[in-house]
Amino acid sequence: MGANSLNMLAVDFGASSGRTILGRWDGSKLSVEEIHRFANDPVALNGRLYWDFLRLFHELKKGIHAFKQQASGSPASIAVDTWGVDYGFVDGKGRLLGNPYHYREARNAQAMEAMLQQTTQQELYSRSGIQPLSFNTIFQLYAERSEQGLTLPEDVRLLLMPDLFRFYLSGIRSTEYTIASTTGLLDSAARDWDKGLLHKLGIPAGLFTDIVMPGTIEGNLRKDIAEELQIGGMSVIATASHDTASAVVSIPSLEKDYAFISCGTWSLMGVEIDQPILTEESLRYGFTNEGGAEHKIRMLKNIMGLWLLQECKRQWELEGESLSYAQMQEMAKAEPGLQSYVDAQDPVFLAPGNMPERIRRYCAQTGQSVPQTKAELIRCVVDSLAMKFKQTLDEIEELLGTKLQTIHMVGGGIQNQLLCQLTANATGRPVIAGPVEATAIGNIMMQVKAHGEVQSLDQIRQAVRDSFPPDRYESKDGAEWQEAYQTYLQVIAKRIVRS
Question: pTM, whole model, 2 decimals?
Answer without folding.
Answer: 0.94
